[in-house]
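Hi all, posting the design record for the shared folder.

TITLE: backbone redesign
STEP: 1 of 1
STRUCTURE INPUT:
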């Protein structure tokens, strides 16, 4: 399996849940190690728990299957890569600067999904992962829309509807990327110019 393009760090635990956070981190690290030599469909809950040093009862207390756990793990990785450090009021940065930050976030997601293409292919073949990914992307787009709205760029639209639409569209766009053999990240980014709404800034594309 290729080396990670970006680290898949565990999410920060709530202060009152250190044990849960440690268990999840152990499971995430265990899954990563197993995926070096096995397809996702070949990994059992028992094998993962042995690798992670976690009891199966603990695993099933939070997850129904390997695929559900992997979906949560990898959707979380995409979500973290999509995070952009921008004031939601649009203060402190120009539209061009913000646009470049968002483009770079998409670039990082493309690099990551390309590096772990076979895992994402397996996840997209499940019934639940596309929706999990789309929901995470919807939340990221809702934050981005607040920024663009603060800059006066968004038409009179329901921002929740726009975020839901774009989240689903991007999830499908990433699915097409991992399903194919294309590996030119910059060409893939450039294709967004023709897919984004006409009012969406295109700086960096």
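Okay, here is what came back for every position:
SEQUENCE:
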């Amino acid at each position: 399996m290729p080396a990670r393009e970006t680290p898949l760090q565990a999410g920060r635990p709530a202060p009152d849940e250190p044990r849960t956070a440690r268990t999840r981190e152990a499971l995430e690290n265990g899954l990563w190690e197993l995926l070096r030599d096995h397809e996702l469909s070949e990994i059992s809950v028992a094998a993962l728990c042995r690798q992670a040093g976690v009891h199966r009862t603990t695993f099933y207390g939070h997850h129904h299957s390997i695929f559900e756990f992997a979906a949560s793990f990898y959707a979380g990785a995409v979500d973290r890569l999509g995070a952009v450090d921008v004031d939601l009021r649009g203060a402190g940065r120009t539209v061009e600067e913000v646009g470049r930050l968002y483009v770079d976030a998409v670039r990082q997601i493309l690099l990551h999904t390309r590096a772990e293409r076979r895992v994402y292919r397996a996840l997209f073949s499940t019934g639940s992962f596309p929706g999990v990914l789309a929901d995470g992307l919807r939340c990221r787009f809702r934050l981005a829309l607040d920024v663009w709205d603060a800059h006066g760029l968004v038409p009179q639209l329901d921002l929740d509807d726009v975020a839901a639409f774009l989240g689903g569209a991007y999830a499908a766009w990433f699915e097409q990327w991992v399903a194919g053999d294309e590996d030119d990240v910059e060409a893939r980014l450039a294709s967004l110019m023709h897919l984004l709404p006409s009012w969406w800034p295109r700086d960096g594309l």
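COMMENT: The longest helix spans residues 129-150.
Let me know if anyone wants the other runs.
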